[in-house]
């Protein structure tokens, strides 16, 4: 996870160079769609609303856990027009290993948006063997993954390279550029999905999966951005939820600015961990100095005089303080503190005019978060600023909370100019009819998000993981997985205040 304005980067669309990309391990979010698309083969798709059950067959492909079965269903592109065009959603399941004691199905809701739930299940199967005793573990590839694989090439052309607007005129210029890019993407779209990737639509897809499974009520495991459709499902179908486990999930109901403002104090705390570590570590490039003061001076200097850079991927560009605040620092120090060592070296070079340590990641993200095809998966969930006045207000609050990282949020800037109505506006989540939820999150990052979500639902508990990480069950963290298994199996929550030690 990297700091991102008033939000922490968790979206799978975050750009990484080839050297920075994570592998296909449990926590990898940047995944290829080719292998998974082959899993379901030519399995016929059941249609949402019909009485037909999907035809389950053994999955084919690489890295398939033993016993995994695949199928598919079709759902309306536009749920307001159920007889209109359809989109095919691939499903996978690992049947319960103790069928005589089977409780039902647990549906995994992937993050991103754009991550494939079938990939998640493939990589976590070995860590969820206890849960699988009593449940079928079910995964699906949401509609935004279909979009990701089929979107027109024009939708991946950035509308601009993001930067921080400092005047109403600059903001209007940004809005105009993004509106033009969004409209061009929509015009090129042949799937119809551009206008229908909001999380209310995704939640209706989830309910179609429930019907296809023959379940009266769902048990849900959601991670990261998957919390947004999980909240939408709770809003639309509270009576159809048996249990919900939320892992590092966003609280869209509270609004994106509030989520960012909650996170920034945590980012400052982790940054203090970094500066303390650097002061005690001769290998740190800023050893012997006040690393925090060096960083903040670099930000001020870069805002006044941007640092010129050249990259193989993006050519020439300039790094402002906004680029550095948004994409510079990693909350996870990495093995042997390797990421923090690299960060300190990059800061040391940048203050001397060499921004190469930040260039590719910062310029790449500034383009990706202005890409209409990627943003179409999330803007309809009310992610953009309502106007320049809100941007100014949130930026002022962010800088008060976090002198080192408070700034305009790149995701909200990217959604400027969204040409369609916000289909899923942020608003309070009614708790009536919902069972208590279980949450889990890292105290180094997303715990505050998940806690703000679960406290909307009476009786819920959020487990604190005392270490860096994100989407803990995808990372094989044993303690959170044990609590999730107990809760989903027995509907028994841990005591409030429960903490898992770092693993």
TrEMBL record:
<dbReference type="InterPro" id="IPR013595">
    <property type="entry name" value="Pept_S33_TAP-like_C"/>
</dbReference>
<feature type="domain" description="Peptidase S33 tripeptidyl aminopeptidase-like C-terminal">
    <location>
        <begin position="404"/>
        <end position="500"/>
    </location>
</feature>
<dbReference type="InterPro" id="IPR029058">
    <property type="entry name" value="AB_hydrolase_fold"/>
</dbReference>
<feature type="domain" description="AB hydrolase-1">
    <location>
        <begin position="134"/>
        <end position="298"/>
    </location>
</feature>
<dbReference type="Pfam" id="PF08386">
    <property type="entry name" value="Abhydrolase_4"/>
</dbReference>
<dbReference type="Pfam" id="PF00561">
    <property type="entry name" value="Abhydrolase_1"/>
</dbReference>
<dbReference type="InterPro" id="IPR000073">
    <property type="entry name" value="AB_hydrolase_1"/>
</dbReference>
<dbReference type="GO" id="GO:0016787">
    <property type="term" value="F:hydrolase activity"/>
</dbReference>
<protein>
    <submittedName>
        <fullName>Alpha/beta hydrolase</fullName>
    </submittedName>
</protein>
<keyword id="KW-0378">Hydrolase</keyword>
